[in-house]
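Researcher: I'd like a structural prediction for the single chain below. Treat it as a standalone chain; there are no partners to consider.
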Amino acid sequence: MTTPIPTDLTDLDAHALSVEVHARRVSCRELMQAYLARIHRLNPVLNAIVNLALDEALLQQADERDAELARNVSRGWMHGLPQAIKDTAHALGFPSTAGSPLLKDVLPAQDSLAAARVKAAGAIVIGKTNVPELGMGSHTFNTVFGTTANAWDPAVTAGGSSGGAAVALAHRLLPVADGSDLMGSLRNPAAWANVFGLRPSQGRVPTWPATDIWVSQLGSEGPMARTVRDLALLLATQAGFDPRTPLSIAQGPQSFLSEADLQGTAALRGLRIGWLGDLGGHLAMEDGLLPVLEQALHRCTAEGAVVEPTAHGFDADSVWRAWLVWRQALAATRVATLLAQPGARSQIKPEALWEFDQAQGLCFAQFMQASEVRTALQGQMLRLFDRYDVLALPVTQVWPFAVGQRWPQAIGDRLMDTYHRWMECTLYATFAGLPAISLPAGFHANGRWPAGLQLIGRPLGEAGLLRVAAAYETVSAELLARRPIEPA
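Model: Treating it as a single chain, here is the predicted structure.
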């Protein structure tokens, strides 16, 4: 018996949409019309998608995809699916603003590699997703497009920098979404949207164009989705070696998940999870977060996983100081390019200027010393994997904060000494070059604020993480079935 197609096609996940389109039960035009109708109804309030293309142009592209299918030609699994590109990456025909007034009219000369790969898989790029200015800070607001509030509670932040992508995904404005992550920019908004987000291993998803291909390896693009299957499908589309990025992983496209991986909870049986918690009190945590994450871990132990609280074994203070050196050195070069424009300093957010100013006294010896600390961290993380299959940490150290607040000034009685100290829990996977996934974990007692559990995998361990996530998805069906209230 054939399952009836929902009246609202946007209720289907990306894989199901792909099946319906390729079976010719749904046309690409019908699909585009359904998404555009939802975007026009909800996005004026959500402000998740920016620089949306004209309906006529998008419907014409959908008609072209339908004509190809009529000739038995498919570009790939995303054939006809709408996709919006994060506004820190290039997509031909759309300004690459990065939320900066200095870049609001800059049109790229080429697609980013991420955009090119989803287009090659058949996607139709409909616009961009909103970001914080220059992608800095985990709160999506800027003076070009305004604020993207949380999908579940408009009074609090969506996180960032992939905040627009997460909100668009949670409210079914997109079937899947791309993000990028340096210090939780993908994991954090995924957690606060109750969706999945995966930061890949260093080099798994190459970034191009890039002004530097040798040192700037902290940031990585990656997938966000409402289901683990969709997450794996988008990762397979994004991943793969590119000769222009010689440090990218020299491994061809792969599926990452089999059909068998999506059945049952076998991946949780005997799984050894090292629970790092708040790193022995090093991480300031808002009240109520750790118990929600521990409930998520209990779902795993109920299916046979073994969760063991464990010490991290590295000097977290030294790692933080080394992180600041790397981050400031890399961020300063981006800001410096903008500062070359007359009067630019008054048009750049203070947090970005702080990164630039802090970097002015750095020397190469400091950078190398920080790199040695980073090397030691990676070695200790690998030693933890001698005992555990995955490591667990919070994705965020606070609940979503007030939308009018730039960033948390304190957690409890502990003052935050930088604008991103409250995101410290995300840097360990990044600094060690390891894959990390954000799993929906549960909600605050008020029922409106989601939280995420971060699982960190072995080097190049995306497939293993996704198998665990698929099993976790099976035992978390009730949590994942929740949907945010649509704005009036």
